[in-house]
Amino acid sequence: MNPLTIVLLVVGLVSATPSWAKTRDGLTPAKETVCDSVKSATPGLYGLCVSYCEARDLDGLSGDELLHKAAQKQKALDRYNARRKETDPGMPCVAQNNACPCWGPTANSPVNWLTRSTEPQCVVMDETGLSHQRRTAGSHTEKDFTDSGALRAGTGPVTNVCWHDDEMTGTSTLQNVSDVDAIACGIEIQTTCNQL
After folding, report:
1. DSSP summary character for residue 158
2. Which run of H or E residues covers position 141?
3. d(Cα 124, Cα 134) in Å, to the nearest integer?
4. Confidence band, pLDDT 50/70/90 cuts, at residue 58
5. Interior CA angle at 91 toward 62 and 53, to 5°?
6. Same domain flag for 74 and 128
7. Distance between CA atoms of 178 and 159, rounded to whole angstroms?
8. What values do phi and psi take at 161, rounded to 5?
9. 30: containing domain
10. Between the chain's N and C termini, which has fewer beta carbons within 10 Å?
11. Domain shared by 113 and 171, yes or no
12. Domains in the chain: how many in total?
């Protein structure tokens, strides 16, 4: 093969690599702008922020992959908090919006819940060491059933989880979450239920 052809082939592959190196949210780690606020903070926080924020992108994962990502996310958050000084901000992905990682603002909107074939139902259970919030609306018969929930175990063998299923949009998410995320999910459910 001609040396010029080899050079052009290598240059073409190297320049195309960034388009392949995308994460589940479609952004390369370098494009996680939510972490920009810690670029000038204590050295190392920016990389841990990117790692944590990318580990929140769990679409399409299940089983062992999901458990591995959840552990990776918690490890990055623990390392971030251990390295953080008093003058540094909290983890931007958590502090920015305290959003539940299982659903977005549209799914959480009261309008989304009030346009279903049956009225929304909310369940809140708080017991020692365990809290559970869940909301449902619609029906399987009408193909518009939706269900969102959060389980915060605190301590013990049960894992913190959140979920969101929507027959109308075809979305389904179930994932292990940190204690902070489980609390955020529960608060969002209670807030939406109070608005219904």
Report:
1. P
2. none
3. 7
4. low
5. 30
6. no
7. 9
8. -140, 160
9. 22-95
10. N
11. yes
12. 2
